[in-house]
């Protein structure tokens, strides 16, 4: 059961991520309801996929008719993104700084990125950068692991930790049996996300915790009664 640490092994993490299908198993719930949220809350098409990885989210967003740029801190991920989508605009960034001017995007999308940040100061810095590049009427959609994610085993993911009580920022190992790999992520409470969103001058206009449904055609387990993900829809506080 190999352990991949994204903080130390960028190529290894990129290789692992390229083998995960976000449309299968538990991961399916991380995007199933996103098109409806975009239709409801987003005006315009200019979109940033922050932490674009191998462009899997970007391609799904483009299929909705959005014009998508992608950024990531992992050079190997950017290489994979360009291979998957040669016509796309994918850029390597450092320090979380987005290489565009203020008020640039109608939508900032981020899936499974905030869980890779290990300090609340960095979370706040990231949210402030999102706020900077969002247009006045812009929207951010943030997909993160729910608190329940760390308390249960899922169809295609298992958390591995010894303590029954997790503290904000705790590093947790998550095992994905379909690829027999384990990765690190960080535990954050809903209160933590709410705090940094508000601290960045933003506000939550909707939050959902998607559950598995019969019509998904997936043999759900825990996902029927507990949600592995929290999805925040965020706008500027003065909008």
Automatic annotation (TrEMBL):
GO molecular function annotation: S-adenosylmethionine-dependent methyltransferase activity
Superkingdom classification of source: Eukaryota
Pfam family, one: Methyltransf_11
Gene3D superfamilies: Vaccinia Virus protein VP39
Domain Methyltransferase type: 48-141
Protein name according to UniProt: Methyltransferase type 11 domain-containing protein
């Amino acid at each position: 059961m190999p352990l991949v640490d994204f903080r130390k092994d960028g190529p290894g993490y990129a290789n692992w991520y390229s083998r995960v299908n976000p449309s299968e198993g538990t991961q399916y719930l991380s995007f199933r309801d996103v098109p409806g949220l975009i239709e409801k809350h987003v005006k315009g098409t200019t979109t940033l996929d922050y932490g674009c990885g191998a462009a899997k989210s970007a391609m799904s967003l483009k299929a909705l008719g959005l014009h998508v740029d992608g950024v990531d801190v992992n050079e190997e991920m950017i290489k994979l993104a360009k291979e998957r989508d040669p016509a796309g605009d994918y850029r390597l960034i450092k320090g979380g700084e987005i290489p565009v001017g203020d008020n640039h995007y109608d939508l900032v999308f981020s899936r499974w990125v905030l869980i890779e940040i290990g300090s609340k100061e960095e979370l706040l810095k990231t949210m402030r950068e999102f706020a900077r590049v969002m247009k006045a009427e812009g929207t951010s959609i943030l997909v993160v692991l729910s608190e329940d994610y760390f308390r249960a085993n899922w169809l295609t993911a298992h958390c591995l930790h010894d303590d029954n009580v997790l503290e904000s920022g705790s590093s947790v190992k998550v095992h994905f049996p379909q690829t027999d790999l384990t990765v690190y992520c960080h535990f954050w409470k809903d209160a933590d996300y709410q705090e940094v969103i508000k601290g960045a001058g933003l506000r939550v206009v909707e939050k959902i915790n998607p559950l598995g449904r019969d019509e998904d055609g997936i043999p759900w387990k825990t996902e029927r009664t507990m949600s592995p993900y929290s999805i925040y829809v965020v706008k500027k506080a003065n909008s």
